[in-house]
Amino acid sequence: MKSQTHTTAQSITPELRAWVVEQASAGHPPEVVLQSMLASGWQEEVAIAALECSIEQHIATVLPPEVPVPVLALQEQPLYLDLGDRRVTVLSVLHKPQVVVLGDFLSAEECDALMDAARPRLARSLTVASKTGGEEVNADRTSNGMFFTRGENAVVQRIEARLARLTQWPLENGEGLQILQYGPGAQYRPHYDYFDPKEPGTPTIVKRGGQRVATIIMYLAEPEKGGGTTFPDVGLEVAPKRGNAVFFSYTRAHPSSQSLHGGAPVIEGEKWIATKWLREREFV
Ligand code: PD2
Ligand code: ZN
Q1: Best mutation site among 101, 178, 261, 276 for ligand 1, i.e. most ligand atoms within 8 A of its Cβ?
Q2: Three-point CA angle 266, 272, 273, nearest 5°
Q3: Quick check: CB of 193 below 6 Å from ligand 1?
Q4: Residue 1 resides in a domain
């Protein structure tokens, strides 16, 4: 690299930035790049700042953009959240990725009402086909399921309004509530809920409200064994306790979000969940 002889007012030029990105792309670790800048006469603060801002800018060109996501009101570390019609318990919080486990989010009557209304409409679960934007049966997902339309009945309306207060995110940005039933052996292998920007079907899918930015899984019936919701990147497993819920968000449609998650196989009994996916904008 070109030697830096003057000691005042060094600045991060486009050439310096390009050089840093080139070094990083060639596989040189940041500390090595920093050492070589210092050896060329760069002041340490300028060299570190150059390293940080060059890498940040480079990341912005190769990763999908970061987008705003719903954030729960947990600033004062409350034990309970008053959601107007119900007080729910904050059981645990993971900060990166944001994963919040909530106790008593649904009443037993609400769980039963959702399952009763869903039961006659259950069919083998489909997933969005990322190649085409349509739907397909997926061997990674061996549950039965159905979708309510948004606001379809009084219980669905009440739960959707509660979710909107929890997430401080417009109710209109939510997809219709999905119900899934898992018997023994059924599972949902680890996946991301966002739509992969590299897949050809994604532009079609995101015309209806943009990317998914958060998921809430509510447990309606608990199996005796198995069926936890796993987050393999962070070694977390959420117990599928009836009435409880888990919220998680993903600021970037990329594995670096660490939002990989799955439904572990049910070993004994039956697991039922309701899933709400939140989009960036109104889901139409
Ligand atoms: O059933 C689950 O625990 C589970 C796991 C992963 C549900 C979903 N994803 C989902 O509905 O997206
Ligand atoms: Zn999922």
Answers
A1: 261
A2: 115
A3: yes
A4: no
